[in-house]
Amino acid sequence: MRRLFSIISILFLIVLIGMGCISFKQPIKLPPTQGLIGQVFEQKGNAMPQKGKPISKGQGYATNIYVFEPTTMTSVKTLVGGLYTKPATQLLGTFPTDSTGHFSISLAPGKYSILVGYEGGYFVPFLNQYNELAVVQVLPNLFQSMEVIINVKASY
Prior knowledge:
Blueprint: H1 2-21, E1 35-46, E2 59-60, E3 64-68, E4 83-84, E5 91-96, E6 102-106, E7 110-118, E8 121-123, E9 135-138, E10 143-155
Parallel strand pairs: 1-10
Antiparallel strand pairs: 1-2, 1-6, 3-5, 3-7, 4-8, 7-8, 7-9
């Protein structure tokens, strides 16, 4: 009886020591370290700067941000009003803005084309000197700030 109690006690100690080595904590999720952060605005009507009035970016606009592999003008077709068709390059992700157009997108370091959904097409915020559509460079450990002003319905 005494021997059985000793064996059970030793087994219990082994189990306790083994349990002490096991971690039951959830893995810590680190915040994203790089990508894009910003806001989308929509300008409408007369956007011409006027004396005595502040220049307006427009109203915050809820939409989707589309991240593509770097792409050029040759991979899209122009639609009416300065909007474009979906590029032929690979779509890497779709990211919604909030109701006021704010967004935060975590991306791996690299180059991307950033397009904005607008009324059935894709709005291109800018072109670079190589006719690439809104190419941004994401650097390690850095959130790049980006403002997009959709001016399709604005007049100057």
